[in-house]
Design brief:
Length: about 850
């Protein structure tokens, strides 16, 4: 964008207005002690550069993680040269901008120490005009090892912080404002990176620059929106006199204020207030409720008829409010969007890669495609990662995805000495200002699970009373004082909560009715999936279940000799010490345990998908008591066994297909309660649905229809209703309940199917599954796009169509192929890769039986 901007200005003859020069060329790096310089890529990390020069093995493969740990203990240097002309030196201002330095970086320009960076989460803008000269300029950055840098602090602290996810015995991560997950996590490889991880550039300009625009919405109704925009303009002339410029503010190309509004700039930064009004505003709607309409706001500065600066950003008009109030059940926790309570559906997001600079714009787009196709409307940027790239929030705005933004603190207490607090304050202000104009931003949250840890993870016993009490004081200082004050000052009106869960609660029934809940009773508590029916909070912001990634992802890091659950290589990719045994325990409850590794992986995927779906539906059935489902976790940062629904190579696990189905705005949700079958209809649309028909069809596994029922009904807006109730024994005998299923459809008055589901009357292990005989046909419909037709006279359960190309898209997968049904799925491979029938593997539950 910026490059495009430069070119446009030059072509209009405004070459002198502004120049943005990316400094991504000619970099070299070296370990500090050996001065052996090699070409480097910027933005990047030292790990990526070392891998490029074969100085590190692929860290994701085999047990290589342990071979790369030496990198974190070294200091690293990066350097480049750039040239500037006499003419360029004549600009009023020359800024050197780092959008992100990871982390302890001393920056030298032509021999001057111009910055000592100590926080990876903030960008730095430096005035370098007095330091640069015509011709060659030397930029040199010395990265101190984050380990060595903090060791003295650790040694003088006198105790080890409870950062149990930090995979080093000395818990150093807490001292550094650096993505916590890079020190290891229970799904994370340890790669303590250093480097210029975000873009670096020079900005040369005359007169003035638009430093910031803060857009605020003062009121919003059907008639009009009242907005206030605060524009900060920095005057960079040396003149002691006032500088006259004009400012133009436009929305969607229409100048709504300040056409030739002339401004006298005083020396330094001036604030210009622009009130505007939009008649009949079009609202930004969350995904599932309508269009997320965006308006392009643009501020342009002119001097003597020439454009000197331009600022663009898309904004949305909507209200979002966290309603966290006492009510008949306890304390509500829901988001009201444009005046209507929204059932939030989504997941917890972790960083997309262990090496952040390798997340390309394309990967962000694919991520949001997964979010949208998963029928989600909210994503939580969880506090153990990073504040995401601008593109992430732009895509959220565009797709109507609300963002729950944690500050980057999680699962441990932190220091709260003055130096630490001052870093955090800068980080908060920087990121609040960077993100506050996004329509998608719904809430700021102080941290992940720190209070939970304080109360229930044994920390009281681990520390002296004095240390423990000091930790509480630190908590209050950071999360109840510093962060909320920063939010109030720079983003007033946006909701803030000090932490999630709001009232620490795992496994304590008395806390379910209050605030948001993390339910880890399933998984850590070994409770059955059916406990999701009763372990219900007001907003489920975390709960999850692990699975292995599918075989082609395992094959990316393991050899076939490693294909055993407890092999060294598999264990290096399973960071939860109890993970494998928990998967097995749950599998035995619901499925017949398969004999081979590949089938264990496949059934594990089905187990995770079906189990989690049970939870999603239970929570949605219980609206309005429960008003949100954000599961743990959406994605992976490397190929690993984890709770994710999409693996590192962008392959959907069974869970993501089940998510899309369970999060559909209209849901048919059957459940067995005592000896009855109840069929719920859940409508998340803000409109009533009239003249609907619910069709129920009981059918045997070999396709024989047993019984059929049609029920006319209306479904209220934003509701969950029981549409059908039947004693389990009324329609089917016990034997039939092992050999039949119930198919359900919701049709509108034209007979069109709006949604459907299939229900089985027993756990999969207790069903009498037949052996299906498939007819399969693959047809190429365009380059890389295929149509696969599947048919069988007998039921095939949880059919998994496997294609050996990473990132292949399936319109559906992990589905039940009903007897006699012709199932057509669309398959699309990345980069139009060719596939054929022989490459397709099909698995299903019956095929795994001994
Ligand atoms: O373990 C899975 C995920 C984590 O990756 C992540 O930190 O915030 N998880 C589990 C829990 N929270 C989170 C809950 N943790 C516990 C529950 C019960 C006892 C101890 C810990 C996420």
């Amino acid at each position: 964008m910026l490059l495009f901007f430069v070119i446009v200005l030059i072509s209009l003859g405004y070459a002198s207005a502004i120049e943005n020069i990316q400094l991504h060329q000619n970099w070299e790096f070296s370990e500090a002690s050996d001065k052996h310089w090699l070409p480097a890529q910027v933005p990047g990390t030292v790990h990526q550069d070392l891998m490029r020069h074969s100085k590190l093995p692929n860290p994701f493969r085999g047990t290589n993680e342990k071979e790369i740990q030496w990198v974190e203990e070294k200091d690293w240097e990066y350097r480049t040269l750039f040239t500037l002309t006499q003419e360029q030196l004549r600009y009023d201002a020359i800024q050197l901008i780092f959008e992100g330095l990871d982390t302890y970086a001393d920056v030298y320009l032509n021999g001057s120490l111009i910055l000592r960076a100590d926080n990876m989460f903030i960008g730095y803008t430096l005035n370098v005009k007095p330091i640069v000269h015509p011709g060659e300029n030397r930029l040199h950055i010395y990265f101190h090892s984050p380990i060595k840098q903090t060791l003295p602090q650790w040694e003088s602290t006198g105790f080890n912080y409870p950062a149990d996810n930090d995979h080093h015995e000395k818990k150093l991560s807490v001292y550094t404002r650096k993505a916590p997950y890079s020190y290891g996590w229970d799904w994370g490889i340890r790669m303590v990176t250093s480097g210029i991880w975000r873009p670096v550039m020079l900005r040369l300009f005359n007169t003035a620059i638009i430093e910031d625009v803060h857009h605020r919405q003062l009121s919003l109704n059907e008639e009009k929106a009242e907005l206030q925009h605060t524009v900060q303009v920095q005057n960079v002339t040396n003149s002691a006199q006032d500088v006259e410029i004009t400012l133009r503010y436009s929305l969607d190309g229409r100048v709504v204020a300040g056409e030739h509004k002339s401004i006298k700039l005083l020396p330094g930064t001036s604030e210009v207030e622009i009130p505007t009004e939009i008649k009949k505003p079009q609202l930004w709607m969350p995904h599932g409720w309508g269009k997320p309409v965006l308006y392009l706001q643009e501020v342009i500065l002119h001097q003597e008829g020439k454009e000197i600066a331009r600022y663009q950003q898309k904004i949305g008009l909507r209200t979002v409010r966290l309603v966290n109030e006492e009510d008949q059940w306890g304390q509500s926790f829901y988001f009201e969007v444009n005046g209507v309570p929204l059932y939030a559906k989504g997941a917890n997001y972790i960083p997309s890669d262990a090496l952040l600079p390798s997340v390309t714009p394309d990967r962000y787009r694919q991520l949001f495609e997964n979010i949208v196709r998963g029928n989600m409307n909210m994503i939580r940027v969880w506090g153990g990662g990073t504040y995401e790239d601008n593109l992430f929030y732009e895509l959220a705005d565009e797709h109507g995805i609300l963002i729950w933004q944690d500050f980057m603190f999680g699962c441990t207490t932190y220091p709260h000495d003055p130096a630490f607090l001052s870093r955090v304050e800068k980080e908060a202000v920087y990121n609040i200002k960077r993100l506050r104009n996004h329509a998608s931003l719904a809430i700021w949250c102080g941290n992940n699970e720190i209070l939970e840890g304080m109360h229930y993870w044994g920390w009281k016993e681990r520390y002296t009373e004095q240390v423990y009490q000091e930790m509480f004081r630190g908590y209050d200082r950071l999360f109840c004082d510093l962060l909320p004050s920063a939010v109030a000052k720079y983003d007033g009106g946006r909701s803030y909560i000090h932490g999630s869960p709001l009232t620490s609660n795992w496994g304590r029934p008395e806390s379910w009715p209050r605030g948001d809940s993390h339910n880890w009773g399933v998984w850590y508590g070994r409770k059955p999936f059916e406990s999701f029916d009763t372990d219900l909070g007001r907003f489920m912001s975390e709960f999850g279940f692990q699975s292995f990634p599918e075989m082609k992802t395992i094959a990316s890091f393991a050899d076939s000799a490693d294909y055993a659950i407890e092999s060294d290589v598999m264990n290096a990719h399973q960071k939860s010490s109890i993970g494998n045994s928990l998967i097995r325990t749950y599998m035995e409850r619901d499925y017949i345990l398969p004999e081979n590794f590949e089938d264990f992986v496949y059934i594990g995927l089905v187990l995770q998908g079906r189990g989690m779906r049970y939870g999603f539906e239970a929570q949605r059935r219980n609206r309005p008591y429960c008003m949100g489902t954000l599961y743990w976790q959406l994605n992976d940062s490397w190929p690993v066994v984890s709770w994710s629904s999409v693996d590192y190579y962008n392959n959907w696990k069974a869970l993501h297909y089940h998510t899309a189905k369970a999060f559909a705005p209209l849901l048919i949700s059957p459940v067995q309660r005592n000896d009855s079958l109840l069929v719920y209809l859940v409508n998340d649309y803000p409109e009533e649905l009239q003249d609907m028909t619910l069709e129920l069809q009981w059918t045997s596994f070999s396709g024989k229809r047993i019984c059929m029922l049609r029920l006319p009904l209306d479904i209220p807006a934003n509701s969950s209703v029981v549409a059908f109730r039947d004693a389990m024994t009324t329609t089917l005998t016990a034997e039939q309940r092992r050999t039949s299923y119930l198919k359900m459809h919701l049709k509108d008055k034209k007979g069109e199917i709006l949604t459907g589901d299939v229900y089985f009357f027993n756990k999969t292990r207790d069903l009498n599954l037949p052996k299906p005989s498939f007819h399969i046909k693959l047809k190429e419909i365009a380059g890389g796009d295929y149509q696969l037709t599947l048919k069988s006279p007998q039921l095939a359960k949880d059919v998994f169509v496997e294609v050996p190309v990473h990132g292949t898209r399936f319109s559906d997968n992990f589905f039940d192929l009903l007897p006699g049904e012709t199932k057509v799925i669309f398959i699309s491979t990345p980069d139009k890769k060719k596939i054929n029938e022989a490459m397709i593997k099909i698995n299903h539950i019956r095929a795994t039986y001994p």
